[in-house]
User: What shape does this take?
Amino acid sequence: LHSDQDKGDGSLKYILSGDGAGTLFIIDEKTGDIHATRRIDREEKAFYTLRAQAINRRTLRPVEPESEFVIKIHDINDNEPTFPEEIYTASVPEMSVVGTSVVQVTATDADDPSYGNSARVIYSILQGQPYFSVEPET
Assistant: This one.
């Protein structure tokens, strides 16, 4: 945040209010720079709404209208996919034809599916080849 009224003489003070102001987000009252005080997790909260204003340090009156900022937290791939069951049990008849479906499992990921590939799930089989295979997308 920076005011055109700021002459650099220290007569202005920048203040911050809203979600996490003073704890998660702080403002340098002299420069208007806004900083996060710790790492932010999108799964905890996806966006924050802050309001900032430049005021006259002596009179405490605003020199600019209040500005509103929406800080959107971009997701990173910080969650592993999870399965609803820890163990799946299935059976297949003896002498089944190649390609017979044995079981379908579904994993979910807490990352944001609308941003990048963080929530994209790809399946692979770790043991059981060449007798079993998995379709990577489904």
Remarks:
- DSSP finds no helices and five strands in the chain.
- The chain has two domains: 12-72, 76-137.
